[in-house]
Fold this protein.
Amino acid sequence: MSDPIRVDDVWKSYGSTAAVRGLSLSVPPHSVYGFLGPNGAGKSTTIRMVLGLQRPNRGAISLFGRPLAAERVALLRRIGSLVESPSLYLHLTGRENLEVHRRLLGAPRRVIDEALATVDLTSVGGRLVRHYSSGMKQRLGIAQALLGKPELLVLDEPTNGLDPAGIHEVRTLVRDLPKSGVTVFLSSHLLAEVEQVATHLAIISQGQLKFEGTREELQARNRQMIVVEVDQPERAQAVLTGMGCTVTREGRRILIAPDGVREAAQINAALVQAGIAVSHLAAERNTLEDFFLELTR
Ligand code: ADP
């Protein structure tokens, strides 16, 4: 089975602003693919290109193994999307909102029941959308995107602006979607939003890819560091570098990347021998958030 999305060395500029610079992505079938980056990183621009709303200046995009540029209309029929908040009629019921879309699509009646069931809104389908919570509205928006029975669902910042309950509802829904055979591509500027639902992640910054891999591969970066606090950080840094350690200095704290050879006791001994007072020595775990910030700084 071909990858639902492949982005191959894509570039896009707006005037002199290079929004996307040589980006390549592979979204595997039946994955929940989290597309992460801080605001302005180029996520929306990439999504617009994947949805055929904008053309890359250079590079190619293929969907389901077919070139988007040449087969745009046929390929876009296989995609559902929710970009920004859904456009809903508040004075209609959830079911009536879906009915409006179903007619536009010319889809059979049963897709409405199926979509309502998928997003867990069957019991409130007859209620006016005006009375829906923010999470229910967003789930209805996702139901709308599912009406055409897409193989790929593209969601741009789907939890933006939702309350904590809504975030939880959308997260649970997204996590379960691959069970019905849909691949999900979702963007976010918050690692915490995506980390719990994504099977695969890409991190971009300033239009460039900084990481792409499975969630497990990302978590493997979550490494233990040895941290020391000393009275002469500059000298300590020189001593440790001299021993071949990879170190970063943060004020009086020195972070030493593990290499499996130098143990905490050895590091301590070397520092003390050089006449440096060590006031604190500990192993600390670098959080994924630290890693994300480091990549996108
Ligand atoms: P993100 O979705 O990650 O926040 P965007 O793709 O919206 O990032 O933006 C990437 C860069 O391109 C930013 O510097 C932004 O200011 C710029 N940009 C986006 N859209 C336009 C546009 N229509 N015209 C000019 N610059 C744009």
In short: The two ends are 36 Å apart (CA to CA). The pocket of adenosine-5'-diphosphate is lined by residues 14, 17, 19, 37, 39-45 (CB under 6 Å). The first strand starts at residue 5 and ends at 14.
